Queue: 2 jobs
Job 1
Amino acid sequence: MPQSKVYLKFDWLTIFLFFALVAIGWVNIYSASLDESATTFFDLSQIYTKQLLFIVLSVLLIIFILAIDAKFYERFSSIIYIVSLLSLLGLFVFGKNINGATSWYGFGAFGLQPSEFAKAATALALAKYCSDLGVNIREFKHQIRAFIIIALPAILIVPQPDPGSALIYAAFIFPLYREGLHFVYLLLGFFAAALFVATLGLGVVWVALGVLLLGALIYLYNLKRNRKKPPLMRYIFIALACIGFAFSVNYIFENVFEQRHRDRFNIVLGKETDAKGIGYNTNQSEIAIGSGGWTGKGWTQGTQTKGNFVPEQHTDYIFSTVGEEWGFLGSLLVVVLFVALIVRILYLAERQKGTFARVYGYSVAAILFIHFFVNVGMVMGLFPTIGIPLPFFSYGGSSLWGFTILLFVFIRLDGGNYYYT
Amino acid sequence: MRKLLLLVVVMITGVVFAGRLFYLQVLDTSFEKLSENNAIKVEYDYPQRGYVYDRNGELLVSNQPSYDVMVIPREVKPLDTLEFCRLLKISKETFIEKMEKAWIYSPRIPQPLIAQLTKAEYASLSEKMYKFEGFYIQKRSLREYQVDHSANVLGYIREVDERIIKNNPDYIMGELIGKAGIEQAYEDVLRGVKGVKYIQKDRFNRDIGSYKDGIFDTIPERGKDIVLTIDAELQKYGEELFVNKRGGIVAIEPATGEILALVTAPNFDPGLLVGRERSKNFTKLYYDTIAKPLFDRGLQGEYSPGSPFKTLTGLIAMEEGVIDTKERIYCNHGYVYGRGRKLGCHSHYSPLAMTDGIAQSCNAYFCTAYRRAIEKYPTPQEGIDNWKKHLSSFGLGDYMGYDLPSGKKGLIPSSEFYNRWYEYPKYKWYATATISNAIGQGEVNLTPMQMANFTAAIANRGYWYRPHFIKNIKGVDTIPQEYTTRITTTIDPQHFEPVVQGMWDVYNKGTAANLRVPGIEICGKTGTAENFTRIEGQTVQLTDHSTFVAFAPKDNPKIAIAVFVENGYWGSRWAGKIASLMIEKYIKGEITRTDLEKYVLEGSLMEEYEKPLRGRPFPINDGKKISAKFLADLPKEDKPLQ
């Protein structure tokens, strides 16, 4: 069969969505980093020129990824994962400190951030593990192993310190759930998150009282309704576990977190409203978005953007530029594009015949979703400030390439399935 | 189910985000303004305020530069407070207090710290300003008065207060606005248009260039000059004549309604309300509740018009056809009406017809005429309302519509007024109950402006123009149409001639015969108005007000004038003399009746004004001359402002 037919089977809709997001992203990076003093357009010291270079290189990367046989990714997934772990370990020795985090390998003016690539590697490893014939994720033994695969890179990333990037690994709970993980895990995770927020928001004493009161009410309800006496010890155990969790959260928050993390949580929980101080980023970002109105102020016309009021606007806060200069309609378009991309990937993942491609596809969708969810939520002032990039949008070579690899490996897997089976 | 979870979560997230975006960007508009304040600095360039000229082209008001030290509190960096205070000539405590106030008003809005420095103060300060971040100097233009009179006409400008800023988004803290007189009435014309520059700032508050290449920037537009109808020389002369007296003069050109002079006494130097002393001086003027220098007696004083009102009574009676020019009416030292009540009159020959009635100011004649005009109608209510209709056509009993922002309506009572007063229909009332109106006493109240206006209407034999101060707005070259529209009275023109003749006789054989000015045919009418005050809860009668209305020449009149002198006793004693002098001054440009001038310039009524304040009973209407010693003994702060 002629080679050219292979390419036609790639999911062109996904590829289109990818390029649409990259293009819109670059347009906004241009505006956010525009420096009137730049002499020529092709000035490599300009951020938007660099990003353009990264995009061109990512196209080469795409061609490379699509050219490789789909089987390669499955076969070499373990090796890729191990190399990725080693690259994270190597940071402790060779890492370059930028902005207080040792997350980069330095190559002259450019840096490479291995944690951006580790996501794809972990997704491959997890997909490989789940697709092993002997593995059933419903079994506790296999759950533990899957968790170790996920946790290893996260544990290596936390001390960089980059808790934001580590947080992304929570995304893998979605593919695991899809493969049969008990719903209780999701509930537990959700309940733990709720307790976490409640502890920080209301204080540990109120949470303890609330847990006891709620437990007592449920116990009394069951006592009335059931003929059999409910097991009191179990209730006490669960209540104590909850209170213990709350206390440990409080301890971690007060003793392990740094002040900047505490501040960020306090802002979002409404405990701090000091717009000039620690809430500055979020406040300025909200102002930028809010001032956009229906159609925005026009490209390169954003006053907040021009005045550099929003820090890190070309990286983590790039969405605020969209909000200010393109308004509600522009922002809505970006949200719709992201949702469409993730939904499309989920659709493609579901139609895979092999477990490997399906788990990998689910992982891609989940990782993109968590990035989108946390980043946009942060920029709009819904979540604490957690420094993670907006996929395909934020400035940065590592981030762009990391997501490109993540996505296009899946496109290759998706295309390959038709051809070989 | 497992297949759907992430899909549902993604969808929900999309909807929530869209909702949040919609709230931030579309529903909540507070962010738009915030962004403007944040990133855009607005710089203003204030234009020169328009000049003010009198009708002969004499410059009355021009400008002088002034410099405000402005502060943007949040941008203030630690500074050498002592040096700064020394430069500004303020104490450290004052500085701290002012900074605290500024913070409270707003940390980011520029506002004046020290307003209106002189050029000399500015010079010593400007070269050091770079040391003090967060402060800058804003140039403005302040008024410079070329004359020391007409303060009541010209008004003044002052800094806008928070109430103005709230109601009028055109103004921001530290800007100046016309607050009285011409400055307020023609604020929009005089102000011009301020120039605006938008400057994009970065988050370190540094200027990074013009916002959108300056497409929103504007250049200032100079305020338009205006020419007033006021004759500065006449105005000045009027104020001089009123030294040591209280009252007002209104002079109108009958043919146009142009106001030639509006004098109120006591007045003050308009220069007092300029610069840093403005507030102190204003307070002093404002709290002078005895002389009331800020009270424009020409526009705001409502007084019983007294005998000049008889001219109107006569006109109405003739128009109603209840009296003609030939009928003579007997006067037996007064007018007797119902149950032996009598309204007294002075000695004169009797009986009299219309023209002589005015010349001799016979009370009985006009009471008869008034009563007939009211009783012509079946009920006194209809009679009074018809009478009011005629008077309203002279602009009486309502705002005149002239172009100064202050004034009073006066009072022309209606049937409704008397019904309420007498509790009709419980008690009935008749024309005789209101008989005092006939001679300008009773319930009738007019402002000097209204008196001048009806005099102008009589001078014109039946029509008038809305009195106004604006003669021309340079560059526009029109004035509002309402000031060029002729208003006709309800009185037929033929009825005016006998009244005019009577007023001419006043000057030639009547109550003002000794005020004749050689070479000018003046028509006038004296007036003496009873008035009362309340002292410790008791109503006490004071010396009568002296009033006078006149116009000249008899044919093709050039000036119509109303003069009012508080407690000046009878009409020709003060008001008549002042009116004659004003007319001579305006028509001839010089004074031949120097005897009158001397009398008026040297005369004083200060003792008369002192009487009710002395706390013991006092004689009224004694016409005693005031000694120079009395004046010298007056406590200093009671000396009139000049």
Job 2
Amino acid sequence: MMETNVTSASASPLAEAVLGESGQNVNLCYQCGKCAAGCPVSYAMDYKPVQLIHAIRLGMDDLVLNSKTMWLCASCETCTTRCPQEVDVAKVMDAVKITALRKGIKPAIPQVASFYKAALSNIKICGRMYELGMIMGLKMRTFEFFKDAAMGMKMFRKGKLKMIPSLTGAMRTRRIFRRVKNIEDKNHSTA
Amino acid sequence: MAAKYAYYPGCSLHSTGSEYDVSFRAVCDKLGVGIEEIKGWVCCGTSPAHCTSKLLSLALPYENICLAAKMGVNDLVAPCAACFARLKTAQYEAAEDPKVADQISEALEKPLPESVNILSPLEIFCNGQDISKAVTEELSGLKVVCYYGCLLTRPSKVMQFDECEYPMAMDEILRSVGITTLDWSYKTECCGGALAMTRTDVVLKLTRDILDEAKAVGANAIAVGCPLCHVNLDTRQEEVEAEYGTNYGLPVFYFTQLMALAFGVPADKLGLQKHFISADGLLSAVSPA
């Protein structure tokens, strides 16, 4: 007789959203805690990765989407590599961030979201990351004008920062960004 | 010399990590490895892309794989560990799911090429040839810990690179050019990566742990293969010392800089002066082998 695998059926719409975004089924998690044990940043998180996954399964949307956890994820992939159930935890973190942004929820660590935005708009416009421009863009978003100023000056003196963006490939990246957005909008409206 | 490898430097090797670019080129030159930079390459999207759009994070790397395929070579070399990981991830995801491959192809308005091997310099330099023959300088005073960071080996099912929790590729290369490398348990610990821009406190803590461990096993230098790791370990080292009242003074090298030094390339041709932690004292003992 075939047994129904109760762990793979999902009652949580958030778990479904994560599955749709990342292909990762959090219901496979049996709470061993290896992701939390190996995570280098878990000490600074409000919920450990294993707890966030459990909250996703329980449908605790508010707790999950307002958590600091996914914004602190450094994408080091230790959790992903060690999960005995082969849940790609780092991808789950990405999916939760994307879901939160799509729902218009203010990120619990706004600087991190600002960094993503500053970096991506820089890549889109310049084709390649123009670090000085990206840092300026980030400061305009976070108002942390003096953060790392001394270090930045020293890097500049040592010739580690370029003054002028190359703009090579900028036409291509603008087009790729636009087309990706169109495809994603289309997928989302049909989903 | 006909190029065997399409070379994808990525953004960092054109700016904050330019030492990695010049030293990689110098080593290729010494070993007769033919490389040609991909013309018109674009940013791989790095973590801001995969944190906000899966399709974007796959399409940007694939644009570069397409450009490499157009050059008519089978092998693409990406020294930056983060670029290397994004290129391999794009290829892995497209191979796993035809729907994903179709979407990437739709975004780029072209078919995806087959059979481009994405390689790290660590793979091409330990590819069977005896690199010890090129050694002219003795660097025996160095006691190096190899810091691989996260993205060379993880996630293992995608990267298929060495032993993911305890890689040896960099150790073996440096040992074969006469440099002592030490065993230590922080080879693949995370430095915090791009959190340096936003949550510097986290990076200072993680970096301190790495520097502490390097000191504890008796290292006098660290070798890396990732420009982001280099920024955090070298550029932020004095900040870590100020924050935690410690004193390390540990020079951080790209492993290609150490190889090039062993092959007799002068230090001033390798961008060593761009490092925050000076290696002058340590390297004053370098002598012809």
